[in-house]
Amino acid sequence: MGGGRRKKQHFGRIHAFSCGKASFNGEHSRIGGPGFSRVVYCNDPDCLEATAHSYESNYVRTTKYRLATFLPKALFEQFRRVANIYFLICAILSFTPLSPYSAVSNVVPLVVVIGVTMGKEAVEDWRRKRQDIEMNNRKVRVHHGDGVFEYTKWRDLKVGDIVKVEKDEYFPADLILLSSSYDEALCYVETTNLDGETNLKLKQALDATSNLHEDSSFDNFKGVIRCEDPNANLYSFVGSLEIEEQPYPLTPQQLLLRDSKLRNTDFVYGVVIFTGHDTKVMQNSTAPPSKRSKVEKRMDKIIYFLFFLLVLMSFVGATVFGVTTRKDLENGRMIRWYLRPDDTTVYYDPTRAPVAAILQFLTAIMLYMHFHKPDLHMYYEETDQPALARTSNLNEELGQVDTILSDKTGTLTCNSMEFIKCSIAGTAFGRGVTEVERALAGRKGSSKSSLAEEVTEEESHVEDLTEPKSLIKGFNFRDERIMNGHWVNEPRADIIQKFLQLLAICHTAIPDIDEETGRVSYEAESPDEAAFVIAARELGFEFYNRTQTSISVHELDPIYGRKVERAYKLLSILEFSSSRKRMSVIIRTEEGKILLLCKGADSVMFERLAKNGREFEEKTKEHINEYADAGLRTLVLAYRELDEEEYVEFDKEFTEAKNLVSSDREEIVEQVSEKIERDLILLGATAVEDKLQNGVPECIDKLAQAGIKIWVLTGDKMETAINIGYACSLLRQGMKQIVISSETPEVKALEKVEDKSMVVPRKGELKALKESVVHQINEGKALLTSPVENSEALALIIDGTSLAYALEKDVKDLFIELAIGCASVICCRSSPKQKALVTRLVKERNGNTTLAIGDGANDVGMLQEADIGVGISGVEGMQAVMSSDVAIAQFCFLERLLLVHGHWCYRRISSMICYFFYKNIAFGFTIFFFEIYASFSGQTAYNDWYLSLYNVFFTSLPVIALGVFDQDVSAKFCLKFPLLYQEGAQNVLFSWLRILDGQ
């Protein structure tokens, strides 16, 4: 911002209670029980009690092998392949007198193949070893007694050590924050290496340790931590710190994870609780499931067939030999010398073909990775992210994709929210036009249609209002009625004021002030939250400061007609969670009123309104439906006033729940929050636009032309998902829609009962719902076979409740038959588990190659289930990328990845393998035919060394060159004629016919 130095407000994700109040309720505590048995003696890791616990050292090893175990483990890996075991048996048999060739000529090819592969493994492992050495030898300051901190290597840290980490240093192990350079014992942490999120996290130490600001403070410090055992959950932690026999609860707010970095804080002190492979980052370092391409699997089948062919040819040869030589025996010895086993041999050994096939297949892949540099057309300059293949054994699979399963938010869209419309007191504000509305206008007809004219009029009106504010990220709102302070002249100005105050106060964002310009920006936990705070600022309510107990806002006062500073006392924060679908803050105004401000999804907010708080309900619902039709994400805003007694009672329960040392602490907190978030008064609703990424409609259209089916699995409402489908060309004009929905009055009533968890739904109701879903699926299947509908492309849209029944064992066959017959499928309100189950179902029942693409942690299951997982490196972190096979920065890069690189790779590898087997079969049969004229005596036609080196050296270069450099058409033609992709999707290049014809 103007290049000025920034001043960060050193107060962040604040809770209304003081961190670290003594826990006074042990009813729910599980510390010491199963899964919660870790005991850490702070500042005394060598005491007698500590030595009774054997914990991991802090030495981290990511190598696959050790020096002493490399040879046996690497050999074991090689001989896990059945083919290699067979080659080994043949090599052993070559040492017997019956062998036609020298043992060396049989052993050398096998040794070369295994040696090259083991050499590749060794080089890769040595690179990992060097990285391990560098990391383990880093140094950090550790307390060695008498208040003296000395530099110690990371590998020498022990559980219980007190460490001092300084600004921009990485945490050497998992630590509990004790204190920092700030009086409030806060620190900023960057977790990019863990989850890819670039926004800084705030951590806060316990009150009981916050005064330990000096090295000398730790001279006599002692404490005992009891906490959960090592696990992979990055976002949870349960434990307690006992100081002078007084326990204090520990939460994720005090946990500093290994490989995260200290930022904007001079130093922190922490105690080591998890070391080495017990740390959460190492617990998360498991590799994704092993995947093999269909081409490689088919090559295995060809090799097995060649083994069978070898046995058959051997049997034929031995039988004919026995028949033709039955009269040549004299005293048990052949009369003709060239028929004697010790002087001759069996004919050509085809086992050398698969040995060299594997070698050349791997060599071609490695050379391809070396010679083909990253494609600059798939480089995203904004985030400096190139396309990255995280595994090299699925390249050719990219050319055979039949179905793509995609997430929506952050994958098809930018996950960069813009505040564009809102409904306040039953009045709709905001004149922006969304991408979905433009697409709908185009779908409804020409510019002469009423909708198109309306959109054109809106756009021209917005252009008239265009001003510098249009450049503000997160704010695309235009409405002169409430901008520039004009809201004070509106009939319901009091409601508008409350609405904007709620936007400015109900959040956990951190203000960031440019000292030169005074401009305030924000670091928020989600793009939605950032958009709300920015909108409040632009509409006259600027949140600019946060302390441990207050939030300060510059807001326009309608009485004085100017901005005034107001400080609201922050009493409690009721945090957002996916199960609650809402968040609230409780504040005390300068006038002494206690207010609960709440924002959340319409599905949970309307049912919490008071009877006298529903004045604008019908109008607000109408506007929410309109916003959903426009592809916008909506939240409902409401508030209530609390009396002192009610708040005091709640605060007591809430603080007690927050201070529990228990694994079910969050559940209890939610139960307490549920009691206070009721009898709300409706203010209105917000609508933010998550714009489509550049090139998404064109990309989807091109993939559809290539014959690839596209499924979208989203958590959005059905109306929103359908309209987004039109905007991104997933749904097209003239496409027949098959809608499977559970939206009936009976089902809605049932869902409300289930959400409230008040009663168990009756079996009869569930059975009726399931029968309804089955009936709708059967109706859809009838359309597939209908001659009238056969000419039309079909699209299937199904909601989450119906999908749950469609995935049941006795229904999923019907569902997948219908879905596979449709050109596009949209699954709405899908949970992460449903995404993974749908992907597995498509992969297993369809039999063709599936590709899943997503950007968030909720997409990991889907990516790992698919044949190919593509992760998008977006703003939701790196968990999807870490679990993927290929990483890209934008969805539109999928077009080039599949239609160009997928096509080339499939063609290269398939042609290479067919070429390889063709030349070997042709060569092998020349020897077989020679044996016909040699009475199948096994008389050699070629020198044994020539036979051994024929594949490995003499004929390998042309095959490998074909597999690395072949390019049938240019990238431009691949994109211009997408139907070329069907060559791989239908697997026309990899067949026995091509092998035998030598095409």
TrEMBL record:
The active site is at D407. Its EC number is 7.6.2.1. Its cofactor is Mg(2+). The keyword Hydrolase does not apply. GO terms for molecular function: ATP binding; ATP hydrolysis activity; ATPase-coupled intramembrane lipid transporter activity; magnesium ion binding. Signal peptide: none annotated. This is Phospholipid-transporting ATPase.
